[in-house]
Amino acid sequence: MSAAPSPALEQRLNDLAMRLVRTEALLTALRDDEKAEREASDRSIQSLRESIGAQSVRIQDLGARLDKPQETQQLSGRRATRVNVPAPREKDDGKTERAEAPPSLPRYHVVAGGPDMVMLHGVGNNDATFALRDIVPGYGHINAIEQEGDRWIVRTDKGLIK
Hints:
alpha+beta; 23% strand; 43% helix
């Protein structure tokens, strides 16, 4: 006659069986996640390939446009010549006119900032958010957003905005 397993051994076997079932479920979920990630990566790669193809076409088109002035020169057989003649000067008749002052830049000041974005208050009493390399009207491109102490400073093509 065979002896029945002890209750402790039976409980241990049941625990191991439950762990095995949970492990298999986790493994299945992990495989499903991996498959979904792989499909998403494949879609992203395909999208990038399509974008690269479109950009290649644009580059070829721009190259063709750049070549056209050369084609025009070849067709006409003439080449533009550079003339080293100074610009004509007006005679000074003793009257001095006041030169116009350069236009003043719009006034902005930094409301809030961060390493990549800044909020400026200015023209029209409005707030506007800008990022690096954005163009601020009257100031040009934002080249850097820097923190000095507790305030942010924006470096642009035409100066600082504090």
